[in-house]
Write a structure and sequence with these properties.
This protein has 3 helices and no strands. By secondary structure, the protein is mainly alpha-helical. Helix 1 packs antiparallel against helix 2 and helix 2 packs antiparallel against helix 3. The termini are far apart.
């Protein structure tokens, strides 16, 4: 996985955690806080969906560019793309789970 992909995933995870903690310590009522948190998580979900789509597109581009290269290099490139996609999809599932928990408490 490229360092920019790792950095972006780490940034999103940190942003989500920081926002969640900040909102939870805000002086608003629980219902208002949950609504704010659900809104932010929805934004992160959208960003993750775009990121996953970008990974898929870039993976296809890399595979096309490497079609003349060694099969070992192609396999390694595809492995990196798949790992990044899996991590992003797990983050997306975590966001969905958090949103469901928030909605169930509303």
């Amino acid at each position: 996985m490229s360092s920019s992909s790792k950095s972006f995933i780490a940034f999103l995870a940190g942003l989500a955690a920081g926002t969640a903690i900040g909102i939870l310590y805000a002086p608003d009522k629980g219902e208002v806080t949950r609504d704010k948190l659900a809104s932010k998580l929805s934004q992160y979900r959208g960003q993750l969906e775009v990121f996953i789509a970008d990974l898929i597109e870039r993976g296809d581009e890399v595979a096309t560019e490497m079609s003349g290269g060694s099969s070992e290099a192609k396999a390694e490139g595809q492995k990196v793309v798949n790992e990044a996609r899996q991590k992003a999809e797990r983050l997306l599932e975590d966001v969905e789970n958090l949103m469901n928990q928030i909605k169930s408490k509303a």
